[in-house]
Amino acid sequence: xxxxxxxxxxxxxxxxxxxxxxxxxxxxxxxxxxxxxxxxxxxxxxxxxxxxxxxxxxxxxxxxxxxxxxxxxxxxxxxxxxxxxxxxxxxxxxxxxxxxxxxxxxxxxxxxxxxxxxxxxxxxxxxxxxxxxxxxxxxxxxxxxxxxxxxxxxxxxxxxxxxxxxxxxxxxxxxxxxxxxxxxxxxxxxxxxxxxxxxxxxxxxxxxxxxxxxxxxxxxxxxxxxxxxxxxxxxxxxxxxxxxxxxxxxxxxxxxxxxxxxxxxxxxxxxxxxx
Length: 275
Known about the structure:
Layout: E1 4-9, H1 14-25, E2 29-37, E3 43-46, E4 49-55, H2 59-67, E5 73-76, H3 83-92, E6 97-99, H4 106-116, E7 120-122, H5 128-143, E8 152-159, H6 168-179, H7 186-189, E9 190-193, H8 196-202, E10 213-221, E11 228-236, H9 239-253, E12 263-264, H10 266-271
Parallel strand pairs: 1-2, 1-5, 2-4, 5-6, 6-7, 7-12, 8-9
Antiparallel strand pairs: 3-4, 8-10, 10-11
């Protein structure tokens, strides 16, 4: 069986490295020994493979490597400031890509993909179980818009110290709960934890995962406090996102020759997982 060729963009970043490691562990994906980077390093040594890191001033060389490999796809986990520039490069040369980097205007990026007919999967969260939970809540909001009228929503979330803002996943799920009638104030009902000591003592997160985790808990209480509902999704490390990214690559690889090119998301990947 031929393998799906994968070129990385964003090494030696943590998420890009996790995806590269997962690709090396897979049996159907072939990580290529060339990657696009904005870092100073020239080579990244992975388990069994040395990847040559090509800088943006070497984009022609990177393009040549991609064009020499049939059905190659780029997976982008680079710095948010580089997202737009990278997407413009991919779409200018119609390079199929999977974009997991957060940042940038996603609506503009999706329109650029459509205008240039460049196959792409674009999603700020690649963890398929979380995508499924979000999808279920979206359906519930559409079907039962007032089911949590009179309830107050409280949200606690913990991420690594370098993440300053509220996670996009939390924002998305908060919006769904509000759509079902729950009241929520960011000032009063949201608690963010970015302190490693508190994460260890109060959240039970081990040292190994202080630099990479995503803990979320959503509590809903009725006005008279006689009814309580809670949903949690706690992720240690980054592997779940890497595995979802590889599913996105497989999904896109099967659609490179579709007559109608569109911007796909992880819902599309999820719905086609068993097809």
